[in-house]
Structure formats: C-alpha cells, structure tokens
C-alpha cells in the first residue's frame, strides 16, 4: 500500500509539472532562423555546431560550413561531411596567429573567408550556416563588428547561423538568440593526454 | 617603416607563443580512451556528442549511441546517423519523468538501457560509446553510481565514452577525463521561439 501511495504522489506531482511545461511549450510559438553562439574555453564549441549540422541534414536542410582559423584538411569532421550532397565545406584559415606569425596575412585571410560567408548570408537556399572559429576574427580586429552584425541581421528570415570560438564579443552576444558558454571544468590535455583523433579533431 | 616594425614585433611575440604551445603539445603524449562529460543547463550537450560522433566516424571508428530518456525516433540526428554502417543507434527511453508519470516504469526502462550499455562497455570493437541523457538515471537514483563507475572504469583501454545530461553527479565527474559545463547564457526558447527542427531536434 505504501508503494502505491508513493506512486500516486509521484504521478500527481509529475502531472502538475507536465501541465506547466506544456503551457511553456505552447507559449513558444514563433518560428524563425536563429543565431546561435558557442563560446567559452571548454571543449564542445565546434563539435556542438557539427552535431547540429548532422541534425539539420537529417531534416533535409542545405548547409554550409566555413572554418575561419583551421587550415588542416585531415579532420574527422571534414572527412565525414565534405562529400555530403547538401553540405558545402570550406577550410579557409591559415592556422592560429602563432602559426602564421604574420598579422597582415591573417587579416587578408579573414577578409577572404568573410566574403565567402557573405555570399551564403545573402542566399535563402542555405538553411544553416556554420562560421567555425569566427570569433577570433573579431577579437583580433581583423573584421569590423558593426559590418558583421549588420550582415548577420539582414540574412534570410529562416536561415540559422552558428558562430563558434572563444571570447565572443558583447556586441555579437547582444544580437544572438541562443548563447552557450562552454566552461572548461576539466580537460584531458592538461592531464598529459594527446589530442586524440575522433575526439579532438 | 612603422608597419614593418609592428610586423616584426608581432612575429617575435608569436614565435615565443608558439614555442610555449609546442612544448605543451609535446608534453601531452599519453594515448588512451577518454571519458567525456557534457553537463550544465545550456544547449549543446547532446549536439556536441553527435559532433564528436561525426568526427569519430570520419576517422573510421565504430560507434554506438544509447538515448536513455528520449523516446521519439523522428529526430534529425537519428535520421542522419541510423543507417550508417558503423553506428549502432538505440532509442531506449520512455520520455521525461513528467511524461511517463510512473517511477517504477522509469526505473525498469533505465535498467534495460544500462544492460545494453554494459554490452558495449565490455566490447573492445566499440571505439566510441555515447550515453545520451544518462545523468538523469543517476540523478533520480534509477541506477547505482558505484556500479556504473566500476563498469566505466573497467572498459577497454582505448574506448572513448561520452555522457551527456544536466547535473552530472560529483562521483561521475571525478572519474572523467574531460568535463564541459554548457552554461545557459541565453536560449531562444525563453524568448518565445519554438524548438526549431534541425536546431533543437
């Protein structure tokens, strides 16, 4: 009998919870393209974007990815997605600032990649655009935030955009719909583990 | 001339930075399977796991996914991954506690899904195992943490495991290699936007 009582109380509590949650879901009825930002120092900013890419492809969407810093083309994500008929994949970086050691080159590279992005931001056939490691172009002043914001805000109404990278500037966060800060609670790298293929790249 | 000076200083600074970073990379030389946890209240816990899944598949790995809470099979991620020859995909949940409203059923469901997980945790042919929304089985006491930890720690040496879900218990975090806390900075849902296909599911 005690168990039956316990189950009945559980059932009543969950029914009340469900009513609240259902009301919240019903209230969220707007449909539009979203601007998502994945920032912070933890692992998962780019991989969360690539997970959403898989999700969007599963729904039949057309997608594009521009990698702003990365220059290597041997990553697992590229090998996996690049031949998909509904993905356009662009590796447009030259590596990190400490790899290039050339500020003028970094700026020129960022501008070229941004021109590619603008093409997609004006194309309503693109349902999801991922600007991977894009925040660094703003952080280092390679691209002007005001111009970038204007272009993002005037994109097609149903187009989703995901921007990843550390230290997203406040001006970008202000215009975003969903912002996740990936906090580094712990990272295997700091315990002496190599960047493992399949996990880190 | 000023520009050339500036470039030279930039180059010298970046060369020093690169030396430090290269030394750190050289010091991280251990190779082994990792236990990753994606927790917190923000968006990106499951999608980061699915992004790593794409990455691992791109490197030719064999992978398995068990969804512990989700009962729906119409998600974009499942549509995208389920037919891949190197992915085993299991939707083993009954929905959230407020959907089932039945504690005994929730416990039985969690136990069945865990048995499936144990099969993979003892199989060295599985390179990456994702236990999606698994933390809830511990949070609600459906599975004993000690038994779960023991099984995770005795898995094959090179097997990677990713656990997702809010409120990962301290005992699980202690045995993990990489832990990211996805903090909710902002979510479109709270601004009245519906859960958009391709982004949220």
TrEMBL record, chains A, B:
Pathway named in the protein's UniProt entry: Cofactor biosynthesis; adenosylcobalamin biosynthesis; adenosylcobalamin from cob(II)yrinate a,c-diamide: step 2/7
Pfam families the UniProt entry points to: Co_AT_N, CobA_CobO_BtuR
Cellular component per GO, a single term: cytoplasm
Domain Cob(I)alamin adenosyltransferase N-terminal: 2-23
Transmembrane segments: none
Top-rank taxon: Bacteria
InterPro entries the record matches: CblAdoTrfase_CobA, Co_AT_N_dom, P-loop_NTPase
Chemical reaction(s) catalysed: 2 cob(II)alamin + reduced [electron-transfer flavoprotein] + 2 ATP = 2 adenosylcob(III)alamin + 2 triphosphate + oxidized [electron-transfer flavoprotein] + 3 H(+); 2 cob(II)yrinate a,c diamide + reduced [electron-transfer flavoprotein] + 2 ATP = 2 adenosylcob(III)yrinate a,c-diamide + 2 triphosphate + oxidized [electron-transfer flavoprotein] + 3 H(+)
Annotated GO biological process: cobalamin biosynthetic process; porphyrin-containing compound biosynthetic process
Compartment(s) of residence: Cytoplasm
Principal location: cytoplasm
Alphabetically ordered keywords of this record: ATP-binding, Cobalamin biosynthesis, Cytoplasm, Nucleotide-binding, Porphyrin biosynthesis, Transferase
CDD domains attached to this UniProt entry: CobA_ACA
EC number(s) given by UniProt: 2.5.1.17
GO molecular function, one term: ATP binding
UniProt family annotation: Belongs to the Cob(I)alamin adenosyltransferase family.
Function: Required for both de novo synthesis of the corrin ring for the assimilation of exogenous corrinoids. Participates in the adenosylation of a variety of incomplete and complete corrinoids.
Protein name: Corrinoid adenosyltransferase
């Amino acid at each position: 009998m005690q168990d039956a009582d316990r189950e009945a109380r559980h059932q009543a509590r969950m029914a009340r919870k469900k009513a609240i949650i259902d009301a919240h879901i019903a209230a969220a009825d707007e449909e539009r393209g979203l601007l998502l930002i994945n920032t912070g120092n933890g692992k998962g900013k780019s991989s969360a974007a690539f997970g959403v890419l898989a999700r969007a492809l599963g729904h039949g969407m057309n997608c594009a990815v521009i990698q702003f810093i990365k220059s290597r083309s041997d990553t697992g994500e590229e090998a996996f997605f690049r031949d998909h008929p509904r993905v356009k994949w662009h590796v447009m970086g030259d590596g990190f600032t400490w790899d290039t050691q050339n500020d003028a080159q970094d700026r020129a590279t960022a501008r070229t990649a941004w021109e590619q992005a603008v093409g997609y931001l004006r194309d309503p056939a693109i349902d999801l655009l991922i600007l991977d490691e894009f925040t660094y172009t703003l952080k280092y002043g390679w691209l002007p935030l005001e111009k970038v914001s204007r272009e993002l805000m005037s994109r097609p109404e149903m187009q989703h955009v995901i921007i990843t990278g550390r230290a997203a500037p406040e001006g970008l966060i202000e215009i975003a719909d969903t912002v996740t800060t990936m906090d580094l609670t712990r990272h295997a790298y700091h315990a002496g583990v190599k960047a493992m293929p399949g996990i880190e790249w």
